[in-house]
Amino acid sequence: MISEAQPLPPTSVAEPTRLSQLTVRNFRNFGSLDCALPPEGMVVLGANGQGKTNLLEAIYYLVLFKSFRGARDRDLVRFGESGFFVAGAAHERITAGYEVTGRRKKVTVAGQEVFRLADAVGTIAAVVFSPADRMIVDGGPAARRRYLDVLLSLSAPAYLTALSRFRNALRQRNAALRRGRPADASAFDEPLAAAAAVVAEHRRQWAKRWGKRYAEYSEALGETGEARMSYVPHHGSEGGVAELRAALAANVDRDCRRGMTTVGPHRDDLVLRLEDKNLRTYGSAGQQRCAAIALRLLEAETLTDERNTTPIALYDDVFAELDAQRQERLLRLIRDTLPGQAILTAPREAEIPAALLELPRWTMRGGRLGR
């Protein structure tokens, strides 16, 4: 059980991240929203379609400057408006604005404009728990790669830099391949291999370090079988720079025929198993949901460990999907892993565990937040 595992040292939880103020303009169904957030968090109740998830999305936009639901920036703009604006105050004030004309995004931290988003990503630490998280487990490898990319970008600045370089080189190599120019494509093999090796190594080391903890979380959530997590490269090897460069050169003709690069970390997978069976293929809905929650708890613990602050917990109608026993287990884990600010959404009070009803209760109706 997780209570028997080695806990994080107290110094890893120096000060929880807390969002004290939130300002939203023309984001999703919000016209104008200004609120002071209680330091302990709050419960937001409201019928479906009123804006509860949009509220969490606006908060998390200040973490990654992207929608956690995968929406494009222009799709976040309220209908008929020219752009949106989101601002929040934690230990520093952060703002993010987007203008449809010119597709311009502007981010500031402590009043200073940030010209490289990578320098501002993760200034606020938060983790989102959502019913859609099950797609991380039962979806294709791209869903699990995105999970790793977000987690490692927020916890390791070097990873975000390498990931940006990798994606840029991959984009240019693929463009040359689509034009049927293998020689031009090969010119990008060196920068692609160099960045890809860093990306793959970060992912591999994370999976290796946190594999045991993943098993402990799974057990604590009620799984009786052995849970395992491993990073599996598509080409079947660990992929150092020289090896990746050689694989790219060996496959360039095939890549040219297919118009895409077929070797690299954009093809790898984070494989989750229970009793040696792949959870994506053989797991039940309950087992997949349990694995998804375990991954989010790992994300929270990774951020706490790497950044010495407990992230804000954003729960999007998560508890309604769990039976009473799993709710109780998850609540115990939350107290240990995410003891700071928590913002929960649910359509009805009955779907919030009694232990969390001590939080201030707010309501959401038509994009308006009230007490």
Question: If you had to describe this structure to a student in words, what would you say it looks like?
Answer:
By secondary structure, this protein is α/β, with parallel strands linked by helices. The protein contains twelve helices and 15 strands. It has helices at 52-64, 73-76, 134-138, 141-155, 157-178, 182-186, 189-220, 241-250, 252-258, 279-282, 285-307, 324-337; strands at 21-27, 30-36, 41-45, 83-89, 93-99, 104-109, 112-114, 126-129, 227-232, 269-274, 277-278, 312-316, 342-346, 361-365, 368-370. The strands form three sheets. It has a six-stranded antiparallel beta sheet with strand order 2-1-4-5-6-7. Helix 12 (324-337) links the parallel strand 12 and strand 13. Helix 5 (157-178) packs across helix 7 (189-220) and helix 7 packs across helix 11 (285-307). Mean pLDDT is 92; it is low at 1-13.
Structure summarized in a few sentences:
Helices cover 42% and strands 21% of the residues. The protein has twelve helices and 15 strands.
